[in-house]
Write a structure and sequence with these properties.
2 copies of one chain form a homodimer. The first copy, chain A, is built from 17 helices and 25 strands. Chain A is an alpha+beta fold. Among the domains of chain A are: 153 residues; 97 residues, Immunoglobulin-like (Sandwich), CATH 2.60.40; 112 residues, no CATH class.
């Protein structure tokens, strides 16, 4: 059972300097831009099912999922920004999708019009169940945003049909998705319908995957089952390998099923694989999946910076997995990673303007790399495989729900970003305001503005993993309680005017990596609070490749130029290496003193083409 | 016009501690192993042309080239090790190949039996002209080794037919190879047949490539012309990009055509692209092509170590290109690079036992990388695409011909590896012996044992680019001449007993890379003479990732354990970093004094699975 739930979208309205503006931009810019792209590329018209061979815009195997994510984003954003026109547009889209459902419940544009003869025949590569999952998530969001059941009912019929096709009974296929996603979606569907059948189907997909005889190998002659995490059952995996987005959606679904079913061996697998990721396979930004070859995890500690893939969707998926583990355990170590990914690796794929996207998020970019792999080095309006842009549509509106967790008895502040809240649960019916300039300042205040009808309850404040010194007071009196699982828990009958105040010391931190991470040897990263900083060429006069971080330097904070108001840049002493034309040479190049400026790494490449590096070589 | 020619195979017999044993092993082990693999996989039987759909071992588009390279290797090795049984086997193979020639001259197993309807229709991807080129090279080698013309005549008929099909006349295809190689092969065919028609065809392929309208784009709808160096004409290329083996075979053919035709604009293109490679895109080992994605060059200075592709064939191709540039110019700067590639990047793909091969040659391997990309991290007996093993078959017998260049008037010692020589040219009819233990010692002697019939001629000794101090004497008298283009030239009427003695100081060198090479910042490579050294785990008690090269250390030479007699290892002071379990942490890990041992990098992974690194992080 989950101890906590993410806060509902409409319960928390962020007012912080980092995310709140971007959530609005997602509503105003990103969503319309993605709708437009879906329309232009044929992803919307595909649901009319009138495509014929020879016509342009042949519905692709993953198109349904792209449009579904945009629909989900429209619905979630509607909860923050009610808009009758947007709702009307959304309903028309939903009606169009529903109209594409077949009599038996099936709903997939590609396999209805392009290759109907191959339905369920190429699970390992054809994204059929993946598309179904995203449609289910969209339906759940639509129901929560509008209260209308039509889309959820449609998806329940689809899920009923899928439950007939797949399973261990005679006549059923013992298959599972080639791209995991439907597992977590089925758990959401179970929750809103109250029908356990759907979470049981999710459990089947999780538990059957990789069992022997191997379905993908024997039935579909798939040779690359490791990339699909289908080479062995989840409980036998010691390391998380293969396609990173698949892997982390898989674990998110597995965590949901473990919570629903109370299956401790499944939860242990989630915990073990979590540890493998965060202890050996995660960039300091929360990026994961270090190679473009198969968009995959590679080997423990193999975390190259310039060729880092670290797909936007993979970091988003890590947030989804972390959020589930956090809410099952109430343990801040999951929040620490979730926060890192949120402020760095997961958001860096989105331009500040809201209309351009990285697919890959390298931790280092040199000018000359623009020429090589250009599409990966500049944010683009769209991609042939456009999973990342559409994923942002639905990710941004959820950020506050990651920041706050709620139970009948407790309000948990995972991330103390400024916001107004209005939470109504059994014992925790509170209105409040959290102020401060997190993540740029560690001081904050939570003030209760209305507690009518509330009984005794707990407000739990996470002490960030990066924070060494902090103070906390309640109504002016210092609180000396030790954190439990990383949270200081304050319990009382809350009253209007109650004030919790805290100050997290937020010094600039110089961080090193495990020596097994070859790319980071002799280098340091600059962090402050949850933010990973980066040198960007536009702020530095010396070419980045010549800048060395002077060991022991002090740091100066200053407003960042050309970035959103409130953004803090960091300056410090550098040593600048002399340049050379030679490729290889004997002797050392001299160093001379200089300065550097760093900005929050996720905000790079918003001021024109630039080079960037997060791990900075050090010098005495 | 070429100023020099590579020495003929049979003119120089190496007796050095590095290559001579391996050339013998190539004859005794590598060649038979490759013949066996060609037989097992169907590459030989393919020439029977009796394959039918549904049968196993469908002839693949590049199979002919693999067998051709083995044939070429058998012929070349026969010149060093005459063997009637080997010659008989070779002749049978040649007869089999000839029997597969079609009436019109065409000879390709795949396009004769698998898809005859597609002959010349998929030039950009189907390796048709590439296979033809390797067959031509094999035929030339067979003729030189045996004096028999049948294979050369067969290939001349094929080339005649190709010259009818391709060209700028009405009715001809204005195409060119998808994988360059035939250009240099046609120049060889022109040389042995004395028929300029073939070098003219090579010139056509070189000059037509990438012209507008683009043949691959317009006729074959190829979208990736940059990978094939067909995105623009060679004279418009500023940087060498795309598939590295294609690129360097292309330049080798272009250099041949430039020499043959005296085309200075073509030679200038070769020179410009040479500079781009060696000044910005070459590993310190002479490895080239830094990414597995497209087996390609990427961006200037993008030279990652652990993910380095540096295909064996690409380094071999670099040697072929360097050899051509050297022989056209007599300039030692080409020999410097050729020597680097020969002793390091080009030979590292071959096991000491002669029967296992690297396709990729990373400059760093960590234990955990074995799990990821296993086939690339351990030498293998064979590959599905087995270009590298078969390339070694023909490469090894040629090494002495790279080491020595000859003209009517001059003998040029490019690489002073111990050997016995017997060269007969117009004014340079000399027998001699070069002694010493190069590359492990810089002292050497060249003694003339017979000069009967020789007029006045020059012996030119290259002063290696890595050598700062050297002495040279002729018959005991110091020679003070300055090198010209890197060679000290001694001219006289040579007599039996004449002795040239030299001593190249060969200190251990600590080399750094241009700061734009991100992977090498804060690191040094250890070199001695032409050899690039590497730490290998089997020689070092500390895990390699914890070893730092102590700045300013002195070095000790000692015999390397478990490697061929004469191999020198290098020891020195290291700082050993403390270990940690944490992935990221604040503060520094302490260092304690220790030692390291390094071996010639090309010899790694011959004593069991090991980790390795060439670029070693430095510490004070």
């Amino acid at each position: 059972m989950k101890e906590y739930q993410p806060a509902a979208i409409q319960e928390i309205r962020l007012q912080d300097p980092f995310f709140s503006g971007r959530i609005r931009i997602n509503n105003d810019v990103t969503l319309p831009a993605n709708v437009r792209k879906c329309r232009e590329t044929g992803r919307i018209d595909a649901f009319r099912l009138d495509w014929k061979p020879g016509m342009p815009n042949q519905p692709h195997i993953f198109w349904d999922s792209d449009f579904a994510k945009v629909i989900e984003g429209m619905a979630l954003s509607l909860m923050l920004y009610p808009d009758p026109e947007r709702e009307k547009e959304l309903d028309e889209f939903v009606d169009l999708i529903i109209s594409a459902q077949q009599k038996d419940g099936y709903l997939n544009t590609h396999f209805t019009v392009v290759e109907p003869e191959n339905r369920w025949k190429n699970l390992s590569r054809a994204h059929e169940l993946y598309c179904a999952g995203h449609l289910m998530e969209a339906a759940v969001a639509h129901y929560k945003a509008t209260g209308k059941r039509k889309f959820v009912d449609c998806m329940a019929r689809y899920a009923d049909y899928i439950a007939e096709v797949f399973g261990r009974n005679p006549g059923q296929k013992r298959g599972y998705p080639g791209h995991q996603e439907i597992e977590l979606a089925l758990c959401k569907l179970a929750e809103v319908t109250g029908n356990r059948k759907y979470s049981d189907l999710a459990a089947y997909f999780i538990n059957e995957r990789g069992q022997s005889p191997n379905y993908f190998e024997t039935v579909e002659h798939c040779e690359d089952t490791e990339n699909l995490q289908a080479d062995r059952p989840i409980r036998e995996m010691q390391k998380l390998r293969g396609h990173s987005v698949r892997a982390l959606y898989y674990l998110s679904g597995a965590a949901d099923v473990a919570a629903e079913s109370g299956d401790s061996s499944l939860f242990e697998a989630c915990e073990r694989l979590w540890n493998n990721v965060v202890e050996r396979n995660m960039y300091i930004t929360g990026g994961v999946g270090s190679t473009c070859v198969g968009e995959a995890f590679t080997a423990d500690y193999n975390l190259p910076n310039d060729t880092a893939y670290a797909e936007s969707c993979a970091s988003i998926a890590l947030v989804l997995f972390a959020d589930r583990m956090l809410n099952q355990t109430g343990d801040a170590r999951y929040a620490d990673v979730m926060e890192t990914a949120l402020y760095n690796g997961a958001i860096s794929g989105l331009s500040l303007g809201g209309d351009k996207f990285f697919y890959a998020n390298p931790l280092e970019n040199d000018d000359q790399m623009f020429e090589h792999g250009q599409q990966m080095r500049k944010r683009q309006p769209w991609f042939g495989c456009s999973c990342c842009p559409t994923n942002y549509c639905r990710f941004l509106p959820q950020i506050a729900s990651f920041a706050w967790s709620v139970s009948d008895d407790c309000l948990m502040v995972n991330i103390p970003a400024a916001c107004a809240g209005n939470v109504k649960r059994k014992n925790t019916s509170l209105q409040f305001r959290l102020s401060g300039s997190y993540p740029y300042d560690g001081a904050g205040t939570l003030e209760i503005s209305d507690a009518s009808g509330a009984g005794e309850s707990t407000i739990a404040l996470r002490i960030p993993g990066w924070c060494r010194n902090w103070t906390l007071s309640l109504n002016g009196k210092a609180v000396a309680d030790s954190p439990q699982k990383g949270y200081v828990r304050l319990r009382r009958e809350w009253k209007k005017g109650d004030r919790i105040e805290w100050k997290f010391d937020m010094p600039v931190r110089v961080v090193h990596a495990n020596p097994r991470v070859s790319a980071d040897i002799g280098r340091a990263a600059i962090l402050r609070g949850p933010l990973v900083y980066a040198l960007e060429s536009v702020d530095n006069s010396a070419p980045l490749e010549l800048i060395r971080l002077k060991k022991g330097t002090s740091f100066t904070l200053k407003p960042a130029e050309g970035l959103p108001e409130g953004t803090i840049a960091i300056s410090g002493d550098a040593m600048i290496q002399a340049d050379t034309d030679q490729l290889y040479f004997e002797g050392d190049l001299p160093l001379s003193p200089g300065r550097f400026t760093a900005i929050p790494s996720a905000l790079w490449q918003n001021r024109g083409d630039s080079s960037m590096r997060i791990w900075i070589p050090e010098a005495e």
